[in-house]
Write a structure and sequence with these properties.
2 domains; mainly alpha; elongated; single chain
Length: about 190
């Protein structure tokens, strides 16, 4: 026995029914998105869910795995912070000095995750490793078990970053930065 009206358009082939609970703010955001897109609430929910699943699959195909993607996202954040710190009015790819700093920032960020057996490795300047450390420390402190309804968008992004990066790489990056800065006896905390 059917429920509601028959799906139309790109969702005409839907045959499965799924019922689940949402927080009021998630439902309100979904309603706004549906109104903007012209989809029904059900179509918008499926569209968003499918897009999320497709994005995860695309990340694996494009970047190889979620850890690599997480490290590249961190490098991108560090590069973005360069422009903010230097108050540049143009994109980092349009300014030779900022571009060169971006190369150093990307390499320095990736070096944070180099296996710990590597000795005497230069991570980068304090100006460059500060944004990376701040993000990694924030991710490390994130509680993965925190309910979605009690998490900000930033906290949910940090939780995803922490899950993608994994505890071993998070700790490795923090240990490497503290080692580079000469912070004695400051091992990475286990934030799992």
């Amino acid at each position: 026995m059917g429920r509601g009206r028959a799906p139309k358009g790109e969702y005409a082939g839907k045959t499965e029914v799924m019922s689940f609970r949402l927080t009021p703010d998630t439902k309100a955001a979904l309603r706004r998105a549906a109104a903007t897109s012209g989809r029904s609430l059900s179509q918008e929910a499926e569209h968003r869910l499918r897009r999320g699943l497709d994005e995860e699959e695309a990340i694996s195909k494009l970047w190889g795995d979620v850890k690599t993607s997480a490290m590249l996202r961190l490098a991108a954040q560090v590069v973005q912070s360069l422009g903010t710190m230097r108050d540049t009015k143009v994109h980092w790819t349009a300014d030779a000095k900022v571009f060169d700093s971006a190369i150093e920032a990307i390499a320095g960020t990736l070096k944070l995750f180099r296996p710990l057996q590597a000795e005497g490795i230069s991570v980068g300047s304090p100006e460059i490793d500060a944004p990376a450390l701040k993000i990694v420390e924030e991710a490390q402190a994130t509680e993965l078990s925190r309910p979605l309804s009690k998490s900000s968008r930033r906290q949910r992004a940090m939780a995803r970053f922490k899950e993608d990066l994994g505890q071993e790489l998070t700790n490795r990056a923090i240990d490497r930065i503290h080692e580079h800065r000469g912070v004695p006896g400051k091992p990475a905390k286990d934030g799992s």
